[in-house]
Amino acid sequence: MDVVTSPKHNVPMKSAEIIAEEESPKHNVETACAKTLEESNVEEIKTVETRDEDVYPKPIVETEDIIDEMESIDIHNEDKTVSLECETQQDKMLSPSNDDNDEHDSESSHDSKDDVDEDETMDGKEKPKPDSPDSNPSTSAWTEKAAAIKNFVRLKSEVAVHTVMRRLSGRMNDENGVYDARDDATKSVESPKTEGKSSIWNPLSYLKMMQNDAVDKVEVKNVEEAELETVVMKGRIILYTRLGCEACRECRLYLHGKRLRYVEINIDIYPSRKQDLEKIGGSSSSDVPKVFFNEELVGGLKEIKELDESGELDEKIKHLIDEASPREAPLPPFSGEDDASSKGHVDELALIVRKMKRCIVKDRFYKLRKFKNCFSGSDAVDFLSSDQCLERDEAIEVARKLASQLFFQHVLEENLFEDGNHLYRFLDDDHVVSSQCHNIPRGIIEIKPRPIAEIASRLRLLYRAILEAYTSPDGKHVDYRSIHGSEEFARYLRIIQELHRVQLVDMSREEKLAFFINLYNMMAIHAILVWGHPAGPLERTKMFGEFKYVIGGYTYSLSAIQHGIIRGNQRQPYHLAKPFNEKDKRSMVALPYAEPLSHFAMVCGTRSGPPLRCFSPGEIDKELMEATRDFLRGGGLLVDLSSKVAYISKIFNWYAVDFGNGEKSVLKHASTYLEPQISEALLDVLVDTQFRVVYQTYDWGLNH
């Protein structure tokens, strides 16, 4: 049995001949039309379906959705008229005046016509001549109706096939599949039979235009990405800069515009390179920026622009593409260069601890609980007495000194150190520290711990260098990929390893505020580089709560730094408990009260967050006011005086308790940082009328 697939319902159909045998005479007219239609179009439909199966896997598409989409498309009105006339003609042919001979003549005349005649009959441009076999009015009418029905079914089948292709194309594009929609759309719309002829309106043409627009947008995006790709070179470009140099910033932007990859050497971070620069370029070469193309000193920004205008810059870039860097060329910074983290006096206590860990650490039971990787106070005293040749009292004092230097602590934080059955654990053996903290060194650091002020100064200097080298001028967009592979970030990882044994209690309010704001921003960048940007609220909660550093012997997450220290141990939004309880020793580090302006200084990599800045203890209050002013004037607060509406950042909604009670107090607090004219007008209106506050939608997208 010949089987044809129905384009609308995708189910097998019987051929016209079988239907003619099974149907009653009342349906023979429809059989004649269907027979001609299937004979002329079954190969075309199969060809389209075969081509689709070759290109795509068989999709799982809801049949009802496709039917609804096809039925929503308005087919030409002529087809509707044809269907009505067809029913009328059926009634006439079923009357006694018409016999089987007339019906047979209609079928034979219809089979003898070629495809061109069918198209001409469909368009209504030519009519059969009076002496032709089709001069019979009933036969001629049925020929026209059969061609019209053929066209109707062809359009329906193409819509069905194209709908499946379009939906599958959308899914493949979501999965980054390679697919050219325009080729298949063109093949399905254009038919060799209709070339050069005027045809009725085709609904596929609209779908084709929509697909072409989508493909064009993808091509434009690919072109833009190709334009942003850096030039691949065998050679090397070295850029010498220093902190706070405006000319250096312009030189970076110029090299970025030329899509030239370079290695930046900041002479404030690498002071030894300043001497090398003077030897290569002369005594006056300490002025930066200075650009080297391999071993050749090109000069500063002015010289590069002159080369670009004269056309010589393209020749030098071509030379960099083809030629590798010789030995005479300046080298990029190597690991540990001018880094104080690996330099200093040896800590004798660290050497003692290293030997202790190998001898007394094991799993033990204490108060009906099992504690892993710990030791008892008596075992520590016995080891110190034997290894250091000390009396027991002297060994206890040495053990307490080790505990005060944050090498180990009580498993339940009950005491500093006592001789007996109390259990203690080394800091890096703690499960939370080893699994969630990302600044624990591998092994014991043998260098004596430095004061927190010195570590904070080095971190601040490095933070400024990273901001200038790897962020946009406004500070909101960060080149995370370049940061991850840079020597500056590797140095940052070495510096934060020194934080696990620092003392934080003696820090002043200004020192503590500047240090923890800068550390929070770099810690957020570190979290994004390690875990990636959080996609949803659950991922954000995990990043803020589980990405931790060990600072002063205790673990601090991003949330603990923001809400526990900087906000003075205040509850974070949608939480019932404070970060630190009364027995938590970290509460001793918390600031005495919340710092509301810090919300416009801490950045967690979002587009709606404030720009990145570096803060110093000496001018922390001034810098916080500048950061708040720039954020609010840059779109954080928009005032419509005519309609009495204020569009304000979502930050004021989350932390309203830090800015005052009620929306009116929040607006008064925020208005002081706007332009003077807007601020005065807003304050005057707030006295008599009530403003409606609309909180802006917070964009959690990555600011890369």
UniProtKB/TrEMBL annotation:
Question: InterPro entries, per this entry?
Answer: DEP_dom, DUF547, Glutaredoxin, Thioredoxin-like_sf, WH-like_DNA-bd_sf, WH_DNA-bd_sf
- Composition bias type Basic and acidic residues, residue spans: 73-82, 122-132
Q: Which CDD domains match?
A: DEP
The region called Disordered is annotated at 70-141
Cite the SMART domains for this sequence.
DEP (SM00049)
Q: Which PROSITE patterns match?
A: DEP (PS50186), GLUTAREDOXIN_2 (PS51354)
Q: Which residues form a coiled coil?
A: none
Can you give the residue ranges of the DEP domain?
347-428
Name this protein carries in UniProt:
DEP domain-containing protein
Protein's organism: Brassica rapa subsp. trilocularis
Gene designation per UniProt: A09p036510.1_BraROA
